[in-house]
Design brief:
By secondary structure, the protein is an alpha/beta fold. The protein has a domain at 33-157. It is built from 9 helices and 7 strands; from the N terminus they run ααβαβααααβααββββ. The protein has helices at residues 2-18, 23-29, 45-55, 64-75, 77-86, 91-95, 103-116, 136-140, 143-146, and strands spanning 35-40, 60-63, 121-124, 152-161, 164-167, 171-172, 178-181.
Length: 182
């Protein structure tokens, strides 16, 4: 099973990327960013998240899928369906609007809260972002995320095809503002 043979090296690389002595280098290699993109095969996501929780018991794990549900619950399912239907061609309007309960705002607020607590923050179940118009680069380039003292780890289910990183095996990923752990 690939997870058993590959996970140790990936988690060793992650530990090195997050080490306090490497933070200046992380910002340099991430073009000023403050994020580690932790890449693993989508089919092995739960194993990688489980291992991260085991290795970082004091980490703050932000579940994007749970925030997605919270976003819908804040307006009610019927109102959400109608709003989404009205903006089907521009989903980013639904998930990144001015509302403090929009998905993007909830994600950034959770990241800032965790960082203020001095905890390593992991963004998990990022596949829930598919179809929302929110890209990993939107999170990585947010001024609050870039200015945090502790790097953000985005758990990123993806694969490589012809040396291109593909989110959920099909969508090109931005690696510009992050340090890639693959």
């Amino acid at each position: 099973m690939p997870f058993l043979t590959e996970h140790k090296q990936k988690f060793d690389d992650l530990r090195a990327a997050l080490h306090e002595d490497n933070r200046t280098q992380l910002k340099r290699s991430a073009n000023g960013g403050n994020t580690v993109l932790f890449v693993y095969p989508p089919a092995e996501e739960e194993e990688y998240i489980s291992k991260a929780k085991e290795l970082y018991p004091d980490g703050h794990f932000i579940d994007v899928a749970e925030l997605f549900v919270r976003t819908i619950d804040s307006v009610g399912i019927e109102d959400f369906k109608q709003f989404y239907k009205d903006h089907i061609m521009t989903p980013s309007v639904v998930f990144t609007n001015e509302d403090s309960n929009c998905l993007f705002s909830l994600i950034v607020d959770e990241i800032c809260t965790a960082s203020q607590d001095g905890k390593t923050t992991f963004l998990i179940h990022t596949g829930a972002l598919e179809g929302t118009g929110i890209e990993n680069v939107n999170i990585m380039e947010h001024k609050s995320v870039m200015s945090q003292g502790i790097p953000l780890v985005i758990c990123y289910p993806s694969t490589y095809k012809n040396e291109e990183l593909l989110f959920l095996n099909h969508k090109s990923a931005s690696k510009y503002r992050c340090n890639l752990v693959k």
